[in-house]
Amino acid sequence: MDIKEKVKSLVKDEEVISLVKELVQIPSHWAQDKREKPISDYLMDFFKDNGIETYQQEVFPGRPNVVAILHGTGGGKSLMFNGHIDTVPPFGMENPFGGEIKDGKLYGRGAADMKSGVATMAYAMKLIKDAGVKLKGDLIYIGVIDEDAAGSAGTRYVVDKGPHTDLAIVGEPTSLQPVVAHKGCDYFTVTFYGQSVHSSVPWNGASANYAAAEFIRRVETEMALEWEKKKHPFCSPPTINVGLVQGAARANMSYLLGDSPTFAGIIPDLCKVHIDVRWIPGQTIEGIEEEFRTLANEVAGSRKGITATVEFIDMYRPAMEISPDNILVKSIQSNSRQVLCREYPVKGETYWGDSGLLYTLAGIPSVMYGPGDIGCAHSDVEWVKVDELPKAALIYALTAMDVCQVAQEEG
User: What are the tens digits of pLDDT across the range 359-410?
Assistant: First the structure.
């Protein structure tokens, strides 16, 4: 029997579905004390039970990544399966950890984002092991913490300390369509400083709020419009969001804190404008920061008594892109075509994944690819199509065999 056919014959739909369901039933969100530890332990036991080498990386006390390795014989490319094992909290979900299956969908927190990807990549490791396949390159699975908690400390730990691979698949929910580019997601604070005086004589002071208002207007009417002209073959144009504005004189703050029946009559001397940007490959954080600084200084320079600063919030979440001609992309497309019996073209995405860190900081060309629809992620009704799960596991396994190359079959 052809080795790929042997792997296909070992896929048991009920096993894959059961594994996803069991992971959904393990809470692993940031609003609980144990965080990701129970699911990390569960996956480690899964790998041990299936004869796969495994260990944990203690990123924070009690919050470990889980790593599993199928060692290669040498001479092939190494591949990483990367997926975050944390989720957002259940918020208003009904039965968030039940893993209920209804009308062909499995429901629960993390069903799409991304316990379906985490589970099917783990099952792909089992398929290769059970088939007795020896790969030339290492196949490494890393279930990482902290992505949905916004810090991505798990993948940042991998970037700093390894293990590193030649290529990587990040199993975010892409509806089984290869994502070859996605935007970066980063934050800035632009602060305007003015001069406080009694509000009956505003000409003796300088309002930080008015300066900030002009800056915001120009972001919307000038900078954002220029960004709309920026093009990328797979991503939509970059965007700017002024998400939070805080402006006041210090003496006015007591009103907001409920300590005063009204705000004092004082011209505001401080206004902070908090901005998030979704930027495309080809842009840089340094370039974006300089754009904000130039505009802020123009506004401040046109107003007596006003100064401005720009601060990059150091949670760097860079954009990612990989050539559609890369062997990893071509392999995913080929195996998807065979397993799904349809053509899935590559695409870009607006949302961010740890693939940005692997690509930019570790130099690992990465693809986002996984079961589930991002459109229901983080919502009160999260689900994944059950029939996608065995197919995803098989595509992961076949792709690993292509990329790492098969050395031999045991037995």
Answer: 999 999 999 999 999 999 999 999 999 999 999 999 999 999 999 999 975 5
Closest CA to 350 of 325, 328, 332, 368: 368
Q: How far apart are CA 383 and CA 389, in angstroms?
A: 12
Contacts of 132 (CB under 8 A, 6+ apart): 409, 410, 411
Write the Ramachandran bin of 84: left for phi over 0, alpha for psi from -120 to 50, otherwise beta: beta
Q: Rounded to an integer, what distance in angstroms lies between the CA atom of residue 327 and that of residue 367?
A: 11
- Per the CB < 8 A criterion, the answer to whether 241 and 182 are in contact is no
**Please, which residues have CB within 8 angstroms of residue 25's CB and are 6 or more apart in sequence?**
97, 98, 99, 108
Where helices occur in 191-302 by DSSP H, the ranges are 208-218, 224-227, 253-256, 285-301
- Decide: 306 and 345 in contact? Cβ < 8 Å: no
Cα–Cα distance measured from residue 19 to residue 39, given in angstroms and rounded to the nearest whole number = 12
Query: For the whole model, what pTM was predicted?
Result: 0.92
